[in-house]
Amino acid sequence: MAKDFLAGHRVLVVEDDYFIASDLKGELVAAGATVIGPDPSVEAALDLLEEDRPDAAILDVNLLDEKVFPVADALTSDGVPFCFMSGYDRRGMPERYATACWLQKPLGRPKLMSELRRLLDRAA
Fold first, then answer.
1. Which percentage of the chain shows pLDDT scores above 90?
2. Could you tell me which residues come within 8 angstroms of residue 32 by beta carbon, excluding any fewer than 6 positions away?
3. pLDDT band with cut points at 50, 70 and 90 for residue 5
4. Can you give the pLDDT at residue 9?
5. Burial of 46 from C-beta contacts in 10 A (0-12 / 13-18 / 19+)
6. How would you class 97 by CB atoms within 10 Å of its CB: exposed for 0-12, middle for 13-18, buried for 19 or more?
7. Which of 70, 33, 29 is nearest to 55 (CA)?
8. CA angle (87, 72, 103) in 5-degree steps
9. 3-state secondary structure of 98
10. Rounded to an integer, what distance in angstroms lies between the CA atom of residue 69 and that of residue 114?
11. Which of 78, 89, 91, 118 is 20 to 30 A (C-alpha) from 104?
12. Which one of 3-17, 70-84, 95-109 scores highest in mean pLDDT?
């Protein structure tokens, strides 16, 4: 996979763990992406989405005391592809997201990049 295959693409990262968010941002920037965020909360992510439209997003399901689903709903409304990311299984997922892209933590770079490529190719 080309090192800069994300060049020109804007990727929203919603993750409340500082170290995971920092690692994700580093991986995405290394692949050429412009990273929006990372944001640690639903409110912060929704505020950013009012100002900026990403090409894709990576969403941690569990953010402190809240779930990321309002952000997923906003992205769905805008036609922005995304992947959920979690250390847990899919139990408790709303039915509307039963078949959504799912990345299991801990997340390896090859899986992250292949899913982002798939999302962006499908959206093109």
1. 70
2. 3, 4, 5, 6, 7, 8, 9
3. confident
4. 94
5. middle
6. middle
7. 33
8. 30
9. coil
10. 23
11. 78
12. 70-84
Maximum Cα–Cα distance for the chain, whole Å? Answer: 38
Q: How far apart are CA 64 and CA 38, in angstroms?
A: 15
Question: Could you say which DSSP state residue 2 is in?
Answer: -
Token digits for 37?
């965020």
Is 53 within 8 Å of 76 (Cβ atoms)? no
Place of tokens 């953010």: 63
Which amino acid appears at position 92 of this protein? G
Half-sphere exposure of 120 (CA within 13 A, CB side): 20
Which positions ≥6 away from 93 have C-beta within 8 Å? 61, 84, 100
Non-local (6+) Cβ contacts of 121 within 8 A are none
Nearest one of 60, 65, 56, 62 to 32, comparing CA atoms: 56
